[in-house]
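Human: I hope this is not a bother. Would you mind checking the protein record under this note? Thank you for your patience.
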Amino acid sequence: MIDPGLVKWFRDAKAHAGEIDISDLAPLQNVLEIIGLTVETARQSGEIDEADAVELVLMDLKASRQELRAWARDLKRLGYLNVADRVGQMASASRVKPRPSFKQRWGLKAH
């Protein structure tokens, strides 16, 4: 998993960045395309490991375990093995949301 110091640096940088123009990202249609762009950017810069870069991008999405697993499968099929393994680790480490109670699922009121 990612170095906690890098996470702190990323969150601090994000907090101080202010408004960011993301109009260049408009053509991206889904998370896999964003991951692909992140990997390519990390590879070109050489300053950060591509799996670390993807983890930084995905950690603020608050994705479900199922979403992370699906992305890991798709990334593996696309040949991003290192990144797929990291996303799979994120899925394993993510907390399972508690199942709603019977009353919550059916909208019943307590007496």
